[in-house]
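Long-time lurker, finally posting.

We've been working with Prepilin-type N-terminal cleavage/methylation domain-containing protein (Anaeromyxobacter diazotrophicus) and I want a structural starting point before designing mutants. I don't trust myself to interpret raw outputs, so I'm hoping someone here can both generate the structure tokens and explain anything notable. Sequence follows.
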Amino acid sequence: MAPMRSHHPHGFSLVEVTIAMALLVIGAVGALGIASQSVKMNEDGRRITRAAALAQDLVANINLWAYDDPRLTNALPANDTDLGDGTLAFEAAGAPPADHGEVDLTAGGAVWLGVPQAEFAAAGYERYWNVSESDDWNGNTVPDAKRIAVIVRWPQGGGFRRLVLFTTKVNPADAQ
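Top reply, 14 upvotes:
Generated this for you. Predicted structure of Prepilin-type N-terminal cleavage/methylation domain-containing protein:
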């Protein structure tokens, strides 16, 4: 008599294949979600990089201006307590509380050597700067310096996002 062989099934059952396919679909959907989020993060990083370059360009030009340049007047003293936009007023729609904006770059026939507005206006970028006279540390009634906040904003969602850089100009008449 021939020995009895046990019958072991080969392959996978329909239930096992269905579960494996469901797990693969869940993994693929998760990977697509991560890829989509990655694209959004890359675009956000690109916008922030552009804003930083525009702000650095304006800061570099401000550092070339004379201390008494009309573009460095404190045109709106009410914003001195919030020079760098800690209240996020620049993220709201509408005109922000800025001392100066794009039109002031060439006011009074001043020469603007930086990035022209035409190169970034289509993307919705706007640049502003606030100026505040620093306290008189040595008590001689002459302001010691000007604190300047450069703010670049761009549209996002229903409002704006913004990037702020700071610089200081020491008063040469008060330098000791």
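Before you design anything, note these points.
DSSP finds one helix and three strands in the chain.
The chain has a mean pLDDT of 89.
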